Amino acid sequence: MNGPVIFSAESDPAIRFHEVTKDFSTFDDPKHRLAKALGFATDAGRRFRALDGVSFEVRKGETLGIIGRNGAGKSTLLQILCGTLEPTQGSVYIQGRFAALLELGAGFNPEFTGRENVYLNASLLGLSEDEIDDRFDAIREFADIGDFFDRPVKTYSSGMYVRLAFSVAVHTEPDVLVIDEALSVGDIRFQMKCLARIERLRASGATILFVSHSLEQIKRFCQTAVWLESGRVKLRGDASFVADRFRDSELGAEVPIDNVGNARVPQSLPARIQSVSVSREYMEPFQDLSVEVRYSVLDPAIEGLLVGVAIKTLDDLHIFGPNTYLERIVIPQLQGEHRIEYRIPALPLLSGTYRIDVGLFTDKGLVCLDYISGAGKLIVSAPYFSEGLVYIEHQWRVHEG
């Protein structure tokens, strides 16, 4: 297969991966690798299967998230999707104009200036010179790299590469956009800017395939998700469900754990949760409950902070989860430590054991800065008087005759 097949039948999905397998040969001796590259038969190599029968479809206008640990096969999948690798078996189909933001600088000539690379890269993505002229100012403004725009891209930082590459990709107005972890190289404010632009593309009907280690971005931004493990699809379906199952798996595996057993994030982020205190662990229905969240802001330029508190069952059913943005509560964003309290005057949970998750986000909840799963535990006990998870006010009426 020479790259993805582009088709246009309206009834077909925007992306179709069908039984895709990719094998690589590995060699201990460089001579054997060279012989293989030159087309000479050799049995000295070992086969490594990076993808093993992967299948999925993405409907038009849908955003699909791809998650998995390092080495799970995500990069191989994306390279096959973009046509830079050919599958050993299987087929890939894409409908419409296609743009991808993968490896830093892909499609750029390092000797060319940013200006020259705009024309080079946009033409590779299918725009005519007149179309590039029409969108040139918008591309330059969005990239926002100042005087570097007229310097060779070999002098760029990784963040500048991403800014220019993303700007070109989204201004081609693709029908299908593929984005991997390259966005994570940019600063938080640029990520927010990119996510807002992706949201506009999605609202206009574009199909997006989104690879991210941020499970909150996957849950809030994607409708569906695929979890890759050892080159195979371990789970696919609703994005929140798949992301939560992956998080559960990671919490029992190789996730950094603090001294109270919570997953932690790197402390270099612009804001993070310092502590969470829950007013009670044992309670009866309709008692009050308070959750105190202490957080610190390290970067005074960060904007749009919000705190979310979620009550979940132990098997991860999300019962209730408001956040300060949705309820129009402005929380402190100045540099330093801050404290907010979340209070439920009469919690209507029925008997059972529940957990409390707390997250610190920005960009309307799309960018997760810190998240503590199981920050608190609730054990609700009461004499039997109803069934279910929560008590809902209701009435009975008996009509005679």
From TrEMBL:
Pfam families: ABC_tran (PF00005), Wzt_C (PF14524). Keywords: ATP-binding, Nucleotide-binding, Transport. CDD domains: ABC_KpsT_Wzt (cd03220), Wzt_C-like (cd10147). One of its GO terms (cellular component) is membrane. InterPro entries: AAA+_ATPase, ABC_transporter-like_ATP-bd, ABC_transpr_TagH-like, Bact_Polysacc_Export_ATP-bd, P-loop_NTPase, Wzt_C. PROSITE patterns: ABC_TRANSPORTER_2. Residues 15-255 form the ABC transporter domain. Transmembrane segments: none annotated. GO terms for molecular function: ABC-type transporter activity; ATP binding; ATP hydrolysis activity. Belongs to the ABC transporter superfamily. This is ABC transporter ATP-binding protein. It comes from Luteimonas aestuarii.
